[in-house]
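Task card 7
Instruction: Convert sequence to structure tokens.
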Amino acid sequence: MLKRSARRARRIADLFPITPLGLAVGGASYGVLQHYGYKQRDLVLFAVSALGLLLVGVAIVVAALAALVVFRSARAAHGDGRLALECGRFAPTGFSIRALWFVPFATVAWTWSELRVEVRQQRLRGRLHETVRATRRGVAPRIRRRFEVGDVFGLARIQFEVAESRDVRLLPSVGALRQVHVIRGLSSGSDASASAGKPEGDPFDTRRYAPGDPIRFVLWKVFAKSRNLIVRTPERAESPVEHTVAYLVTGSSDEPAAGAARLALELGAFGNDWRIGADGMDAEARTRDGALDLVTRSASVSDSLAGTGLAHFVERAGALGRLVVFVPPRPGPWLPKVRAAVRELKGKVDFVVGTDGIARGSKVLRALSRAEPSGGGEQAVPIDELLKVVKALEGGTNGARVVVVDRRTGHAYLPEHLAGRKQAHTKVAS
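Output:
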């Protein structure tokens, strides 16, 4: 009952056309008109106060007329098919409404109520076309848009919501991790690449240089002839690992980890026989589409459930050939739960810590230089918080490997590169 009453009260308040500024202007104009205009016969103040009242009245009429046009246009507009977007990039949704060129001094803007997206409008051929940039992954069976229609002076405003039945899936961004060599370390093989070679593969393959490659692998003779930087890379194993299980731990700033998990799925880094789970998800996925849907839906999990499902997931998985756990870069309630879940494991455990930049230096300098993340990115994680996570995961089980992947730069870091004076980056595969 209380929720229904609150909803009704909010709807009534949204439809009330006068803003606080409009009330202030209208009230002041009416008081001046009564006291100075009528009683003291001040013609100047009479004209000014009458003009203020007239302006508020015109603003109310403009807002009401514009709201009616926008409401009818929004109810008639529908997108085509399922909407799948990647976080961090502006993309059109196919939704558009009539531009209010024929209503003077009218403004219109809208937001999404249930999903975290940034909305922009582009005017084209007499219509306002919607482009959005998602800031967090998620799924929804509909799009609920909250419109705000008013006048340019801010004296009147009418708000309302219009729902569109449309399946929406907002995928986590992989950012600069699109470079294959950054995530290649997740696809270690069960066989050696050659009978006479090393277990991890000899540097027989070549490719173009990318930021983060060790300089010692550059083929300088090739560079001298072609002026192109070519590096040697370990060749792939003959077959991928036979059985891999992966898990996504949710929590604060988990978008980079979700992006790394998505990239591993799209590259087939888990081999042929794999399964993946995530916090808050009762079922596990064995197909690419099902796994992407699972990773996307995990965004709705509360922080209190972060890390709680890993132990049960490992128990259901049975014998482990290899476990890959994608985790957030900041300490939280999930950290001791994850440590407890993997403490008794004897198989190979890889932790992938996803970040959107690493903030180095003192706390004072970090506070002074802190900037808002661009696109769908998170804030850069302070180095001390990241080191706390890395050290806790390294001590969680014997033989655990921890890799930090930076979605903003495309670099991958091993623990020794984070703690030492060298601020160098390294490849996962090196």
